[in-house]
Amino acid sequence: MKNFTLRTPTEIVFGRDIESQIGPKLKALGAKRVLVHFGGSSARSSGLLGKVEESLGNAGLGFVELGGVSPNPKVALARKGMELAKREGIDFVLAVGGGSVIDSAKAIAMGAATGRDPWEFASTGTAPDRTLPVGTVLTLAAAGSEMSNSCVLTNEETKEKRGITSETNRPVISFLNPENTFSVSKFQTGCGVVDIMMHTLERYLTPNDGETDLTDRLAEGLLIAVRDAGRRAILDPRDYEARATLMWAGSVSHNNLTECGRSRLFPVHKIEHEFSALHDEIAHGAGLSVLFPAWAAFILPHDVMRFAQLANRVLGVEMDFSCPERTAREGVQTLKRFFEEIEMPTHIAQLGVKPSEYELLAENAMKTAGGPVKSHMPLGKEELLEIFRLAE
Amino acid sequence: MKNFTLRTPTEIVFGRDIESQIGPKLKALGAKRVLVHFGGSSARSSGLLGKVEESLGNAGLGFVELGGVSPNPKVALARKGMELAKREGIDFVLAVGGGSVIDSAKAIAMGAATGRDPWEFASTGTAPDRTLPVGTVLTLAAAGSEMSNSCVLTNEETKEKRGITSETNRPVISFLNPENTFSVSKFQTGCGVVDIMMHTLERYLTPNDGETDLTDRLAEGLLIAVRDAGRRAILDPRDYEARATLMWAGSVSHNNLTECGRSRLFPVHKIEHEFSALHDEIAHGAGLSVLFPAWAAFILPHDVMRFAQLANRVLGVEMDFSCPERTAREGVQTLKRFFEEIEMPTHIAQLGVKPSEYELLAENAMKTAGGPVKSHMPLGKEELLEIFRLAE
Fold this sequence. Notes:
homodimer, alpha/beta, Rossmann fold, Dehydroquinate synthase-like, alpha domain, 2 domains, 6-stranded parallel β-sheet, two-stranded antiparallel sheet, 15 helices
């Protein structure tokens, strides 16, 4: 295993009826004037925004609202939020929503604390050393941004999508009530399940990391729990225990616990980001669902035993000792069938991506990566095109 | 699952050759004058203390030393450390050692920050709202105090052993180099393996917590990893990967991750504390190794399916669908055989405890608990005596 550092300071407040704790907790953290950041009208119509603002008001905290975050959050709105925060004397940014809202809140917090344009950080991938404190009230189990050190921004003008990873980026507090995800659609639930699994799978399927037995076992346990809860939540969206497992797993899967001692490469995420940057309508989880099985089929010969371990321990595939590659391939197929079972796409055409766009997507991925995308082997244009063909 | 809060802010710096980071990291945390707290002479003779102090000196930090911590750390030394810290203007307490040294450091930090006697906190179980920052350089994978919110102190005069649990009690930073555990004896390694497993087992085997699937899977993965690494470290004390798994598992097993959504009762720890309070020579892990199988055999009928889950998922016992209790009991026996395999005691006489002491031990446990010890049923005197007899 590799040396590592880990710090996960985000306070997690988890469970039913926790919204009344928001005001007192933020007050204890020193907040005085809060920017309440959210997406569409459902935050209000569900009653959640009302509960949040009631709790803030009861604690004597002032607040201003900024809604309108869309999936693949845009730098334009973050700029607007940053100006609003400066003008209103905001000292705490509270995201009420899913990963896009939280990522937008992180960008606003960076911009407001430094006076610098958020895209400056995104385009260079470097975060400032200070930011406003960010809190979250989560409504979607998926991105893990509520506990992670990263955020992703999209520049609509240049059609670029870029990530910022920095320890200053971790929210100080996150309120996780699984009931707030009961109304998430079957499709978005499926996208979340895939995204959560991928955050751990991308860390699990890295090359040359040697033995990381505890990290492996935790990762495998998380993947099993998410698969089982995913099935349940798709069948019954009001299954509290299943929603709770997905919600907590979303945080744990991306807070770096399943990375300890391993590398961070994230090739499938990097490739997928080009898909949703080019086609804003592509849901991140859906893109991953299409690309992962293809990437895995392509990469698997470089690390057969690792893929066989995944197949055997997580996906219930019996080890074929005479041909471990058969086990490994059956594991990828089993996962692909699971994605299909929860009604996620597994063919590139289902994303609306045409073969004529493959070249551009491959070039964009290499441009963003500054060369071939790093994986078990460098993924240059030829390799990326092969992966796209395997995803057909 | 129950509602929960979780905050694990301790920065973990893990791996080989990390000692040179100690000075710079403490400086970045604002330390100016450090109390270096340790146990016996091995901290110096191993060269570790020299490396730590060299790093502090290179970073321009002043320090004073206080050694002499013994197993089951005594309040007398903590009082001495507290006076020393005040006299020397200490602003950071750095524990170099295992759980006892860290617990002593936590007590010193509380006393120095408040000017109040550490036993005051221990005897009432309430921590102050402020403390000096504590860091750790770990040399023993066992207690998990390097990331936990708790510490345990012993009062030699009254032969009482008491715990303090508070979020202010978590170290701000812990340096974990598995090589620093290569010299840990076979016996102490075994004690550590049992203690680590018990920190998760006590959280796993709680009554009436409903479904906690993710927490279960993480707990089960940790237990499997510790069992496998424990075997390896006993066979080859210089097996880096096995030592790394034990060291990281020690932290994760007691930082509350495996408690999320579940209760905290810790009956076996509570009973064992009376054993090592009465007999200072009883190693905590050895006491647990004797008491857990007996407690489990006694409690198991109250929650057969939970013990069967443990047996099946962690201990490789095939589920007996016609008689789940058989599965559950075979699981406890399998774990007991594992403890014996790593040369841990499983009979009460091996601890030097005589049947004539059973009554006193039971009475002390109830005195500390302020009544019967809480478990799946209240463990009053009669039940505790039965558990001691089952441990014979």
